[in-house]
Amino acid sequence: MSAINFPDSPNNGDYANGFVYNSARDLWEGVGNLTPFCEALVIAGGGGGAVGAGGWAAAGGGAGGYVSTVTGEMSGGGVSTKPLYVSLGTYLVKVGAGGAKGVGGTLPTIGNSSIFGFVSAFGGGRGAGYNSGPGYYPATFGGSGGGSALGNTVGAPGETAQGFRGGNYNSLGYFAAGGGGAGQQGQDAGTGVGVGNGGNGVASSITGTSVFRAGGGGSETGVGGSGGGGNATQDGTANTGGGGGGGSTVAGNGGSGVVILKYPSYLTLTVGGGLTSSTTTSGGMKITTLTAGTDTITFA
To answer: Cα–chain-centroid distance for residue 24?
Structure first.
C-alpha cells in the first residue's frame, strides 16, 4: 500500500484524502463519510421598508442575513467564510420570503429566514417610521438591522457574521436612515436629499459570475445598497435578500432570499417538489439555485 501524502503547513479545517486537519491537536483526523463537497450561499429575505404617515420620516429595511461557505469569500458582517462539511443524505431547505412593507395602519415586517441543513440566515429587520395609528415605531434586529427614524435614534443591530446595523437618526427634520447591508452598515440620517442610503451587500462568485447580494434598503431620501436594496419606495430585488426602501407615503417590500449550492458534478441532487430550483454545470461542478419554497433535498 502506498503512503498517503498530506499538504505541508496545513490550516485548521483543510481537507485531504478523507481527513480534516485539526490545528488544536496538530493531527489529520478521519471524517468517515464527511466530505467538503458542497459550497453554499444562504441568504434570508430582506426586511420591509417603513412608511411615514403625513410626510414623516421613514427608514429602509435591513438586508436578509448572508451566510457563505464559499472558499476565499466573505460572509456577512465582514467575517471570513468557513468550510462546510456535509454528509451524503437529506437536508431541509427553506428560502425565506421578504418582509412586507408598511401600508396605512399596518407596520412593516421582518424578513423570513432561509435554511440549508444546519446553516440558518436570519431575516432582515424592518425599517423605523411614524404611522398615524401606532405613532413612532422602532427598527428591528435582523440579519442586517433596519434603519432608524425620528423618535428612534439608533439603528437596529445585525446578526453577528451575517450583516450590519441600520443607520442612526442624528438630525432634525423629516429624514431617516438606511437599512444595514451584509457588507456595510446603513447610512445615518442627515438633513438633505441623498443621505440615508442602504448599506452595500457582499459579492459572491459561486455561480461563476461576481454578483452583489443582500444590500440594505434606502430611506425616503436615499438609495438602496448594492446587492438588491430597494431605493426609496421600491421593493428589494427578488432572490437577493435586499431590504425594502422607505417612503413618506409608499414603501417597498423586502426582497426574497436564495440558497445556492455548488458541488461536484458526479453527485446527484434530488430536490423536493416544494422547492423551485434550477441547476447548471461548469468546470466539473454543478450549481443549484433554489429560489422559493420549503422542502428537503438529497445528495447521493
So the answer is: 31
Do 8 and 112 have their domain in common?
no
Structural contact between residues 42 and 259, judged by C-beta atoms closer than 8 angstroms = yes
- How many domains does the chain contain in total? 2
Query: Would you call 69 exposed, middle or buried from its count of C-beta atoms within 10 A (0-12, 13-18, 19+)?
Result: buried
pLDDT in tens, 73-102: 999 998 887 777 677 889 999 999 999 999
101 shares a domain with 27: no
Q: Verify that 247 and 153 share a domain, yes or no.
A: yes
Domain range for 162 is: 38-300
CB 242 within 8 A of CB 229: yes
Report if pTM > 0.85.
yes
Q: How many CB atoms lie within 10 A of CB 235?
A: 26
Residue-by-residue DSSP string for 9-52: SPPTT-EETTEEEETTTTEEEE-TTEE---EEEEEPPPPPPPB-
Beta bridge partners of 116: 93, 119
The answer on 176 and 91 residing in a single domain is yes
Cα–Cα distance, 189 to 147 (Å, whole number): 9
43 and 21 fall within a common domain: no
CA distances from 95 to 64, 268, 274 (A): 11, 21, 11
CA-based angle 211:13:210, to the nearest 5?
10
Buried b (16+ CB within 10 A) or exposed e, 274-295: ebebeeeeeeebbbbbbbbbbb
C-alpha cell at 158: 445585525
Q: How many CA atoms lie within 13 A of 217 on its CB side?
A: 55
Higher pLDDT, 15 or 222: 222
